[in-house]
């Protein structure tokens, strides 16, 4: 499979990892849009949010548990943060592997763009 996130998970492409367990991998974004900007991805290749189903939805709840944990550890939980999932071309998805951006450390405006 020629998926950049699968290659990051497998250690074929370097990343600045902040968390890993048997289900998820979290790492800092290489082009941060906020003082704190990391991604949390399932280790199982799921193409996008359109492919979440009964068999893989456990990854999503676990991802949000890890987001909660990391937001607290990185001290963005009190002031607030944003969780973003881009789905499909019009949604801005550039990597076809489900991923969640977590941004914090500054006031985030709405709409995002």
From TrEMBL:
Q: Matching InterPro entries, A to Z?
A: Histidine_triad_CS, Histidine_triad_HIT, HIT-like, HIT-like_sf
- Where is the catalytic site? 99
The GO terms describing molecular function are: catalytic activity
Q: Per the Swiss-Prot or TrEMBL record, what residue ranges does the short sequence motif Histidine triad motif cover?
A: 97-101
**What SUPFAM superfamilies has UniProt attached to this entry?**
HIT-like
HIT domain: which residues? 4-113
Q: What's this protein's name?
A: HIT domain-containing protein
């Amino acid at each position: 499979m020629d998926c950049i996130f699968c290659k990051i998970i497998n250690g074929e492409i370097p990343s600045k990892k902040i968390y890993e367990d048997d289900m998820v991998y979290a790492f800092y974004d290489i082009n941060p849009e906020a003082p704190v900007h990391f991604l949390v991805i399932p280790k199982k290749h799921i193409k996008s949010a359109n492919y979440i189903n009964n068999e893989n939805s456990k990854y999503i709840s676990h991802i949000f548990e890890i987001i909660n944990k990391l937001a607290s550890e990185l001290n963005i939980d009190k002031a607030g943060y944003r969780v973003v999932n881009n789905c499909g071309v019009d949604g801005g998805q550039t990597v076809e592997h489900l991923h969640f951006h977590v941004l914090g450390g500054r006031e985030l405006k709405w709409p995002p763009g």
